[in-house]
Write the structure tokens for this entry.
Amino acid sequence: MTPLPSAPGTPVVDGVGRIPGFVNCYTYADGDEIVLIDTGFSRNAAPVVHAFEAANVPIARVSKIVLSHHHVDHMGGAAYLVENIPAPLACHADDAPYVEGRVKTPMPPLMRPFVRVRSAPVAITLHDGDQVGPLRVVHTPGHTPGEVVFFHPSRKILFSGDAVVERKGRLTLGAPRFASNLEQAVESLWRIRDLGAEILLPGHGIPLTEDVGPRLQDLMERAPGEFLRRATR
Ligand SMILES: [Zn+2]
Ligand SMILES: [Zn+2]
């Protein structure tokens, strides 16, 4: 299958582009429209802008910008993008106050001097079960209160944000030290496993196109020991 050229970024599967960096942003081409999933660290969304330029696709083709959660590495470019393209910004209702700057984003002290977060207006607040084009919004709280994953039910494609990331060949929780509620993050793994994804596109690390089910099962089984024990030590 030749990936559609209309999904800027590195082709992963048909209609899906990955814009790699510290964070992966993704494009999902839905007919003529493109959904952008996460915006990266950069205050001028540079990797996203460059990916569209490289693909020769006008960035105005983005019909929706959706955020997996409010952390600055995922929403840093959102303000710039909504100022420059007509696409609405969407995120889960529980993370919207952080994205909009009404509630301060918790940030590791070491990072504070380097990162000035630009808050961005959220046009659409998402809830569990909502649809973004063909993608279903699944609320998987724990990493943040409003962490969501986006799932394509018939193609079994999962954009897993920081709810599940890939690190050194293994699936794991995204930055457990910064999780708003680790126990919840571990519980959310059940929901994620039950989706039956076959393609996993994490917020950090390498996309997986094989053995997704068994690897999610493995993470789910080891997560309580690995993360909850550590948290109570
Ligand atoms: Zn995060
Ligand atoms: Zn992240």
About this structure: The chain has one domain: 10-232.
